[in-house]
Specification:
heterodimer, A: Ubiquitin-like (UB roll), two-stranded antiparallel sheet, B: alpha/beta, 6-stranded mixed β-sheet, 4-stranded parallel β-sheet, 15 helices, globular
Chain lengths: ~90, ~425
Amino acid sequence: MSLRVIIPTPLRKAAGDLEAVDVEPGTIREIIDSLDQRYPGFGARLCDDTGGLRRFINIYVNGEDVRFLDNLSTSVTDGAEVSIVPAIAGG
Amino acid sequence: MSYVKGLRCRECGRLYPKQLQAGCEDCFAPLEIEYDYDSISRVLSREVIMSRERNMWRFRELLPLDGDPYVGRSSGGTPLIRANRLAATLGLHNLYIKNDSVNFPTLSFKDRVTAVAINKAREFGLEAVGCASTGNLANSVAANAAAAGLTAYILIPEDLESSKVIATAIHGARVIAVRGNYDDVNRLCCEIADRYPWGFVNVNLRPFYGEGSKTFGYEIAEQLGWRAPAAVVVPMAGGSLISKTYKGLKELERLGLLEDEVKTRVCGAQAAGCNPIVDAVKRGSTDIRPVKPATIAKSLAIGNPADGYHAAGIIAGSGGWAEDVTDDEIVQGIRLLAETEGIFTETAGGVTVAVTRKLIEQGRIQPDELTVIAITGNGLKTLDAISLPKPSVIEPRLDQFDRAIAGKAASSGA
């Protein structure tokens, strides 16, 4: 059982230079924790001291912004695609 | 000659060299171009500015190009109109319209930001440019890319008005419609910009691109006699225009070019069907809660505005306010402007007029204070939003004409 997490260029150095990583299903928070265990420091790039998602990071599950779902408690199932996208553009 | 010192992260302050970069690598916040204002102040004066041609490059030291612009040389320099008839209807005495609905070459304020981005793409030696767009940016990038001899990849939401699609594709750009809203298109563009060596004007060229909007503010100040207005009303999509307009006023103040301090109350305008920034301002917060857009004002239909946080902060910090209006009110706003001032604006302009009316009713704008409203795009771009009765049809006979106009509105049925 696994799902794919797409890593944007600015975060690849922090994730072993990988474009995508396969992880076990779980909540977004659990997925971030498991990536942080594999790549120490990765979690801090996504979440701030309060444990919340950083303002300028968006996470999408199958194209849907988790802020419309359950934020970090959003449950992600087998075969889903999670995309981390810095919230840079717009306009 | 460039006066750019580098790209500074708005949040953590890290400084990057002048390069293609979408955001901060540490915290992903937007980057602000930093200038050597001391050097600029030694070369830029009112006299120097006024000696130049009337276009956006009048203020070239404050724009991030290394050399002269290759395209967009006639962009900007749009009229500032004293709107007495509109003012009278709204109960104001001192109202001006900054009219970018006639901007060159594609009839929206986007020609300002695109000119900077595409010239910069050439300076960086890029072969292709791209963008995600709600419409005006698509037109502008396609046109300016053609004039620059660059390939353009334009991504739009599938439901974009046909007039905007044609006006983009006509320039030979590669146009791709995406099943989804603007935010879906935008996310895809971020992913594409990550993978292809292209200049996405509102992604990896964004810090440069955004600077073009400062000229909207510079021109307002110059056209008012080197003073900032008491209040300005600006429509908000991504939140960049309103933020950079204010930055423009503050830069002129910093360079000592204005008569007085900038005390402008910055007011933002959105559609009720897509109002994340207005909502934050009303909550007294700068935290943006993304929404799913549902409005005829498609050019403002950005549910997750990248500069929303910044815009909300500027509005609150300046003592301004923000309001939103229904689709019906938007159309009424378009018609009011057209009927009182002879200016046909697109839905975003209708939003601005309608919100201005609301702000006056709320006492947020006073009748005597100098107010400028931002009309950002031309009405010919959003004809789909307007529904008017068809004209009377008559035989070519004088008596029929007499009957048609006697005691009836000219546009009523025959």
